[in-house]
Design a protein that fits this description.
Blueprint: E1 5-10, E2 16-20, H1 36-40, E3 43-45, E4 51-53, E5 57-61, E6 64-68, E7 73-74, H2 85-110
């Protein structure tokens, strides 16, 4: 699967994140960047499996800026800029849950 590189910019904070959405690229983030967790926090998963944007995001795409607006929905199987964004968000959320669980286990083991 080809990686798509997008530059995501948080409107309010002016922070950005270079993201390969089939695996966010943490190595390319600067000190003023949006983490994968912050990107994910701008969406809410609906019971239908769709993801709704709850805080706007500006994407500096090759063809010019694209805004994901508050209330925009992304359903599984529907492509956005060539990506199944709902699937990518599901994978990010799963990764975050695993990391959180591992961190909790490490903390309880150390205590």
């Amino acid at each position: 699967m080809a990686l798509r590189l997008l530059h995501l910019v948080g409107e309010e904070e002016g922070r950005s994140c270079l993201c390969a959405l089939s695996g966010l690229s943490g190595s390319k983030r600067g000190s003023n960047s949006m983490s994968e967790a912050e990107f994910l926090s701008r969406f809410r998963r609906e019971p239908t499996g769709a993801w709704a944007c709850i805080k706007p995001i500006k994407i500096d795409a090759p063809g010019g800026p694209v805004i994901i607006g508050q209330g925009d929905n992304f359903s599984p199987g529907v492509l956005f800029m060539g990506l199944d964004l709902a699937k990518e968000l599901d994978q990010m959320a799963a990764k975050q849950r695993v990391a959180s669980k591992l961190a909790g286990e490490a903390f309880s083991t150390a205590a």
